[in-house]
Amino acid sequence: MKICIRCVLPETFPGIRFNEEGVCNFCLDFKGEEALKEEKEEYYHKFQDLIKQVKGKSDYDATLAYSGGKDSTYTLYLLKSVFKLRVLTITFDNGFISEQAFKNIRTVCENLAVDSMVFKADFQLLKRIFSAGIQNTMYSPKALERASTICTSCIGLVKFTNLKIALEKKIPLMAWGWSPGQAPIRSSIMRINPALFKSTQEMYRKPMHDLVGDEINRYFLTDEQFKSRDFPYNVSPLAFMDYDEEKIVNKIKELGWLIPTGLDANSTNCLLNSFSNQLHIQKHGFHPYAFEIAGMVRMKVMSRKEGMEKIYNNQNNEDIVTSVRKKLNFI
Ligand SMILES: [Zn+2]
């Protein structure tokens, strides 16, 4: 299989083209590290201005979707210790969060002195949605370039669970631990536009509604809620802060965070991940994290060697896959 000589994208990735040397169009479009550095600087100041505007106006300054993984843990550290915000972490328990991730959530929240909330969604409902995602591609090809069907369903529920809580508590910022490869810098600080977000909601809600009916509606906003004047800002600090995996892990270890063992190389928190990645590769011919990892290689926050390792030498843990299939009654 042909793979870009600069990043890690394979020839099976949608819309990819290569020049004569074997460099892909995504790499050729990349503006370079200098431009990126300037943009990062600009967004860092933008974030500080925004903090001045919103800080202290509500019980909490920011929500954080907290999976217990390294990126969201480091984001929590930045929000609390660097930007001095009052944070409410929200963990969406999809039934597959590892025990170590839960321990990490408890320990890190205690050590950083922040409030934490766990929302455990009805697992029978989730089971129907995740199982359907094993056989069907529920979303548009575009949505599936960056995440598997199962992850897309889960992320949709996470996004709107966070938004509902932020609206109810009038929390002005909704923070996310997206890595620099997942969050483009230009959308790393953005006020939610309710009209646009209504179509985003439908993108997620409709396929799940087709499966399980009106029961899914409680996880999404009502028309009345879309009229709110308190729509928060989405912020992804890792897009404009320094990102170095080794430094991040060392920092969060100081907060008592421990590396979960036995999981695949891309996820330190969710057991469903290896399984849904494996299905995605079989179905679409590329790893659902390829785009994200390629972006990080391009930005030089990850070496190409390490990126290749993550995308192409990713040994599945068969024990985890078997236990996931069992829990979804899909053997
Ligand atoms: Zn490339």
What would you say this structure looks like, in words?
This protein is α/β, with parallel strands linked by helices. It folds into two domains: 30 residues, no CATH class; 290 residues, HUPs (Rossmann fold, 3-Layer(aba) Sandwich), CATH 3.40.50.620. It contains 13 helices and six strands. Strands 3-2-1-4-6-5 form a six-stranded mixed beta sheet, sandwiched between helices. β1, α3 and β2 form a beta-alpha-beta unit. α3 crosses α9 and α5 runs antiparallel to α6. The mean pLDDT is 92. Bound molecules: zinc ion (ZN).
Helix content: 40-55%
Please work out how many helical segments DSSP would assign. Answer: 13
Strand arrangement in the largest pleated sheet: 3-2-1-4-6-5
Taking pLDDT < 50 over at least 5 consecutive residues as the criterion, the unreliable ranges are none
CATH topology of the largest domain: Rossmann fold
- Radius of gyration, in Å, reads 19 Å
User: What is the percentage of strand-forming residues?
Assistant: 5-15%
Unique bound compounds: zinc ion
Order of helices and strands: HHEHEHEHHEEHHEHHHHH
The secondary-structure class comes to: alpha/beta
For the residues shown, what is the average pLDDT? 92
CATH class of the largest domain: Alpha Beta
Report the CATH superfamily of the largest domain: HUPs
